[in-house]
Fold these 3 entries.
Entry 1:
Amino acid sequence: MFSFLKKYNTLPESYATLGIDMHSHILPGIDDGAPNLETSVLLIKGLMQLGFEAFIATPHIYQELYPNTNETIETALHDTRKALKEAGIQVRVEAAAEYMLDDHFEQLLETTPLRTLPGNRALIEMSPLSAPPNLDHILFRMQLKGYVPLIAHPERYLFVKTNKARYHDWHDRGYELQLNLLSLTGYYGPSVRDLGLYLLKNKLVHFAGTDLHHTKHLELLGKTLKDKNLQKLLQYEGLNNKNLFQN
Ligand SMILES: [Fe+2]
C-alpha cells in the first residue's frame, strides 16, 4: 500500500514540496475568505512560513452567495498585490476562481471566458449532498470549449460514498481532482478523510490545495503537518502543483 509514494529520507517538514497553493480564499472581502486586506496579508505571510512560495487564489463565483465577476476579482487581486508590495513581501499571487455549478455557471460557460488556472483548468465545486443532475453534460460542455474541469475537494462530496466508481469515471473522462490538505487530517470528519484516502490510494488525485478561508485553517495546517495521512499526500508523486506555472 502506498508504494508509489516518493521516498524521502526524512518526512517533509513544510509544504514546500507543493510550492504553489492553487486553491484558497485569500483575496479580501469578496467571499467567505479573508474579510479585509490586513487578513489577506497575514494569511499569505503565514502560508509562506509554512513553505508555500506562490498562490493562485480562487474566490467563489456562486451567484446566490458570492456573485463575483472578473472585475471584483481583479480589483481584489490588485489591492492584495499592492498591500504585499507595501509590506515588503515578494511573492507571486494570481487569481482564478472556484465556480459553483449552478445555472449561472452554465450561462457563463456559454457566454464568457472563465477565469482559469494555468492549462485552461477551471476549478469547479458542487453541493456536498448531491451532484447536479446534468453534471456530466456540463463538464462535457466545458471540455468542448477547451477547459479542463478541475473538481475541487471531491472527497467532500459525500454522495459518492456509496458509489466510488464515480471517482474512477470522473478520472477516466479527463476531469482532474484536487484534494484539500486538511481533509486527510479528519478536519471535515471521518467520511471525508476516508474518501480522501481512497482517492489517494487509487492515484486519482492531481492537485492538493489548502482551500484556506481563515486563520483557523492556517493554524491547523501548521499543527497537523506531521499527520500521517497528510504526509502520505505530501509524498505522493502524482501531484502537479509545482508544475502549474510551466503550463
Ligand atoms: Fe474553496
Entry 2:
Amino acid sequence: MTDETKKYVMMGIIVACLLLAGTIAYNSFSDGGGGGGTGDRQIALMCAECGGFEVSVDEYREMMAQQGPEAMMMMPGQMQAMECPKCGKKSCYMAQKCKKCENIFVFGQAKDQNFPDRCPKCKYSAIEERRNAR
Ligand SMILES: [Zn+2]
Ligand SMILES: [Zn+2]
C-alpha cells in the first residue's frame, strides 16, 4: 500500500465514523418533537452502575471525544460500553427515553419484541407507531 492509498483508507474510516455518530445522534433526536434550538436536546444513556440518565448534546460530544479509538470503531448495532460521565466506569450504553412513560432503556432490550425501540415498561414503540400510521 502506498502512503497515498493509506491516507484515503484512513479518511474513509473517519468519514464512516462521523456518519455513524451522526446516525446515532439523528436517531436519538428525530423523535424529540418539533423544532426548537439544539440546546435543549438530550441524549439518553444507561449505566450499569448509575442507571438511566440524560446528558446534553454538548456533554455527549465531549464524552465521545474522550472515548478510546475502539469506541469509534464500533459497528452499527454493536453495543460498545462507554465511559460513564458520572461514575467513570466503562459500563455506559446508548439508550432511549420512552416518549410515553419516560422510562430510559437500551435499544433491543425487550428481546422478544420485533422493534428495538419498544419500551420494556409500557411496550410503546415509536417505530411501530410510525409504521401503523402509514
Ligand atoms: Zn455510571
Ligand atoms: Zn414506556
Entry 3:
Amino acid sequence: MAQDLFKHPDYYLVDELLTDEHKLVRDAAREWVKREVTPIIEDYAQKSEFPKHLIKGLGEIGAFGPFIPEEYGGPGLDYMSYGLIMQELERGDSGIRSTASVQSSLVMFPIWKFGSEAQKEKYLPKLATGELMGCFGLTEPNHGSNPGGMESRFVDKGDYYLLNGAKMWISNAPFADIAIVWAKNEAGRVKGLIVERGMEGFSTPETHNKWSLRTSATGELIFQDVKVPKENLLPEADGLRGPLTCLDSARYGIAWGALGAAMDAYYTALRYALERTQFEKPIASFQLQQKKLAEMITEITKAQLLVWRLGTLRNEGKATAAQISMAKRNNVATALNIVREARQILGAMGITGEYSIMRHMMNLESVITYEGTHDIHLLITGYDITGIPAFK
Ligand SMILES: Cc1cc2nc3c(=O)[nH]c(=O)nc-3n(C[C@H](O)[C@H](O)[C@H](O)COP(=O)(O)OP(=O)(O)OC[C@H]3O[C@@H](n4cnc5c(N)ncnc54)[C@H](O)[C@@H]3O)c2cc1C
C-alpha cells in the first residue's frame, strides 16, 4: 500500500463522547500505525513473519498494558484508551493487535491481578517496554473450547514444581521470554505458573502454514519435566476463573480491534467506489454498491456505540463477562461481514495485497475463533439470559 490516507468514519459523532486524553492516545496510535505498520505489513504478511522490530514502538505508544499503573511501569490509562489503541492497531493488522493484546491482557494483566509483589516488580516494567515479551498458554491439543478439561499438570517436589504437558495455538510463543501457563495441581485445581525461556525441558516450536494472522507468530509450548521455581506460581489465581478473567480483558480489546479492521475496509471500499468508473459512472453511483456501503456504516456505527458503552462500564468496574462476550461476538462477525462486502466492491483488486482488505478478511477468520469461538460466545449469552448452560 503506497500511502495510508485512513480517516475514521464517525457517523454518530462518537468522538464527542471521548475525552481529550482518549483522542490524544488514539491519534498517537493511529499516526504510529500509519508510519510504522502500513508501509511494511503487507510484506511481512506475505512472508508470514512477525515484524519484531515493531516491539519497541509498541511499548512507546503504550500498547503494552495500557491499564497497568505507573508504579509498575505501565502508562496508567483507562479501559477506553486501551480499547482505542487496540482499534488502531487492528486497523493496521490483527496480528500486531494480537501481539499487543496477549502482552497486555494475557501476560501483564494476570501478573498484575494474581501475582506477588515481587513478580509485579520483576516482570511488569520490562513487559511494558517490550524488553520482555510474554505468551499465554491455555489451549491444548485436546482442549480448546473446554479448557477445564486441560491435561497439563504440575506436582509439588518440595523445592520446586515439576510441570508436564503441552499447549497449542499460542500467540507470541516462538519468541516469548516468559509464558503464563495454566495447569492443574495435584488437587486438580487450575493454577498459573510463570515459565521462563531457558528452563530445561521447555520448548516452543513454531506453527507454520497459517493462511490467517500471518504477521503474528504462533507456536506450541511443550513441558517435559520442567522444574519451575516455587516463587513463579501466581499466588492469587485459583481455578478456571483465573484464566477466564484474563480472557475477559483480552476479549474486550478484541471487540474494539475488530472494529478497527472494519473501519479500514469500509473507508477503503468507499474511496474505491467513488474513484472506480464502470459504464461511464463511478461504481458508488449504483444502488447495489450504495446498499453495501450504507449497511457497512450502519453496522460500524452500532459497533462503535457498543464498545463505547462497554468501555464506560469497564471503567466503572461494571462490565460483566457476558456483556464482553456479546461485544466480542458481535463486532468480530460484523467486521468479517464488512470486509467480505468491501472485498467485492474492489472487484479483482480486492484480492491483491495492494489493499488491506483481503489480509483483514483472512485475519478475522482467526479472530472469530480465538478467545472463545463465535458459537461459544452465543452460548455464554444464552446462559446469561436463561440461567441454563448449554455447553454440554
Ligand atoms: C491464530 C490463533 C492464535 C491463538 N492464540 C492463542 C493463545 O495465545 N493462547 C491460547 O491459549 N489459545 C490460543 N488460540 C486457541 C484458541 O483460543 C482456540 O482455537 C479456541 O478456543 C477454539 O478451540 P479449538 O480450536 O480447539 O476448537 P474446538 O473447541 O475444537 O471447537 C471446534 C468447533 O466446535 C464448536 N464447539 C465446541 N464446543 C461446543 C459446544 N459446547 N457447543 C457448540 N459448539 C461447540 C466451536 O464453536 C467450533 O466451531 C489461538 C488460536 C488461533 C487460531
